[in-house]
Specification:
With about 475 residues, the protein is an alpha/beta fold. The chain has three domains: about 150 residues, Leucine Dehydrogenase, chain A, domain 1 (Rossmann fold), CATH 3.40.50.10860; about 170 residues, 3-Layer(aba) Sandwich (Rossmann fold); about 40 residues, no CATH class. It is built from 16 helices and twelve strands. Strand 6, helix 8 and strand 7 form a beta-alpha-beta unit. Helix 1 crosses helix 16, helix 3 crosses helix 16 and helix 6 crosses helix 15. The two termini are about 35 Å apart. The site of nicotinamide-adenine-dinucleotide has 24 residues, from helix 8 and strand 7.
Length: about 475
């Protein structure tokens, strides 16, 4: 959506890109090559529903093929358009480079309100869309690998995988054509929670360095920080749940389509989520104040603001009134380029989307590798690891017996130490490592370069350098 007096989403991404490349020493031709979107395919297809043919419009955009396959989610929303899909594809290029997922950037979208269709109809529509894309290698294990995004999830990914497999009956790697599948259809443990989990790991890393915390004007740790979340969908729900249950953060506000709920003493995130599932919105949720004009809560006093729904929600019309000293962009593009300027001048610290929500593509990368290797992570080594740990426990037990009352093992040490890592533990560990390392690469630029004032510019510098290195290695 284009707001009055504001650039479109794609123009916003380009402006942020331009701000970063102005600080770099790239040959102008290469700069242009990286910025532009390579190709966008538009498809219009008909599906017979409720006795008549309905026509749908979909897109798949490929921003950069410096690495293949290219990767990026498929979004179902009535507002999907070419500009948005291209902006999201560009962000995927930078995101993958930043977290070292070996993919180029892509994105897809279908103009549809999925809530208007039943499951069977959605399956017909999704299969037809997948057919149109797969026919042109825009879904393909080694060319283009979609994933879930707003309005899509495991169910749609399973239909896409099955559709591709039907069309490519002898492709042994067919399952790697899409990620975010359910576990029983070739998915990986921890993919559903991955993006929200990544937001949690990102905030933990931010709070590990007191210099970063100080830049935002906050102090201390995550414990006790007041959080407002917009969008309690896949990303927002998991981020809010983990931060409140595991890090002691207090979720004071949740903004949804129909309004917002607010309770300064903290909301039970699971309960709000459950309420939305049963009532279609937050309205009527007990133990909280309902705010009909939900977006006004973006301006409420809090420590951390997590926009996890749509793009452009913080724009020139409200940026000056946003009070949160720290914003983590769980959604893609929630802050327009103009609002970004306003907030930076106010000293607000913004953890940028290309990093903050990279947990999804990181675990998608693990899923893709799992599909290509045809084996679950941990299957070969888990029991062997446990057997080796048992040797240590046996020795400690001997010491324990020998020393009597003078020393003994801590009560739950045995259980914890003995347990070998299963797939979920390995996925979380790989994700944590990825989020920490990527943050550290941004932090280094942020602290070391006097001309870099914010994390977003730092993120662009790191990722554009990586993309440029790939192009140079190809001789461009
Ligand atoms: P989702 O469809 O699961 O959830 C979106 C939530 O936002 C829903 O609860 C919806 O009701 C709410 N919402 C919609 N319009 C709203 C409005 N106007 N005001 C307040 N709330 C509103 O989508 P998701 O997968 O959680 O994606 C959310 C954002 O995160 C998107 O920007 C997406 O691109 C980004 N993202 C998602 C993933 C992923 O793995 N799913 C990965 C990276 C980035």
């Amino acid at each position: 959506m284009k707001r009055k007096n504001e650039p479109s989403f794609r123009e916003s991404v380009d402006m942020m890109f331009n701000r970063a490349v102005a600080l770099m020493d790239l040959p102008p031709g290469l700069e242009e090559k990286i910025r532009v979107c390579n190709a966008t395919y538009t498809v219009r297809f008909g599906v017979r529903l409720r006795g008549q043919i309905q026509t749908f419009t979909g897109y798949r955009s490929v921003h950069s093929e410096h690495m293949e396959p290219v990767k990026g989610g498929i979004r179902y929303a009535p507002s999907v358009n070419q500009d948005e899909v291209e902006a999201l594809a560009a962000l995927m290029t930078y995101k993958c480079a930043l977290v070292e997922a070996p993919f180029g950037g892509s994105k897809g979208g279908l103009c549809i309100d999925p809530r208007q269709y039943d499951e069977h109809e959605l399956e017909q529509i999704t299969r037809r869309f997948a057919y149109e894309l797969a026919k042109r290698d825009l879904i393909h294990p080694s060319q283009n690998v979609p994933a879930p995004d707003m309005g899509t999830g495991e169910r749609e990914m399973a239909w896409i995988a099955d559709q591709y497999a039907r069309m490519n009956t002898t492709d042994i790697n067919a399952r790697a054509c899409v990620t975010g599948k359910p576990l029983n259809a070739g998915g990986i443990s921890g993919r559903v929670e991955a993006t929200g989990r990544g937001v949690q790991y990102a905030l933990r890393e931010f709070f590990r360095d007191p210099r970063d915390v100080e830049k935002s004007g906050l102090s201390g740790k995550l414990d006790g920080k007041r959080v407002i979340v917009q969008g309690l969908g896949n990303v927002g729900f998991h981020a809010a749940k983990f931060l409140s249950e595991e890090d002691g953060a207090i979720v004071t506000g949740v903004i949804e389509r129909d309004g917002a709920v607010f309770n300064p003493a903290g909301l039970d995130v699971e309960a709000v989520h459950h309420w939305i599932a049963g009532h279609g919105g937050v309205s009527g949720f007990p133990d909280a104040t309902f705010v009909p004009e939900g977006a006004s809560l973006l301006e409420e006093d809090c420590d951390i603001l997590i926009p996890a729904a749509l793009e452009g929600v913080i724009n020139m019309s409200n940026a000056a009134r946003v009070k949160a000293p720290l914003i983590i962009e769980a959604a893609n593009g929630p802050i327009t380029a103009g609002a970004d300027d306003v907030l930076r001048q106010k000293g607000t610290v913004i953890i940028p989307d290309m990093y903050a929500n990279a947990g999804g593509v990181t675990v998608s990368y693990f899923e893709w590798v799992k599909n290509l290797s045809h084996i679950r992570f941990g299957r070969m080594q888990r029991r062997q690891e446990e057997a080796r740990h048992q040797l240590v426990i046996d020795e400690l037990q001997r010491l324990d017996d020998y020393l009597g009352d003078a020393w003994s093992m801590s009560p739950d040490f045995k259980d914890k130490y003995l347990r070998g890592a299963g797939e979920l533990e390995l996925v979380r560990s790989g994700l944590d490592d990825t989020m920490r390392i990527a943050y550290q690469s941004m932090r280094e630029v942020w602290h070391d370069r006097a001309d870099v004032q914010d994390l977003r510019t730092a993120a662009y510098l790191v990722s554009i350098n990586k993309v440029a290195a790939s192009y140079r290695a190809k001789g461009l």
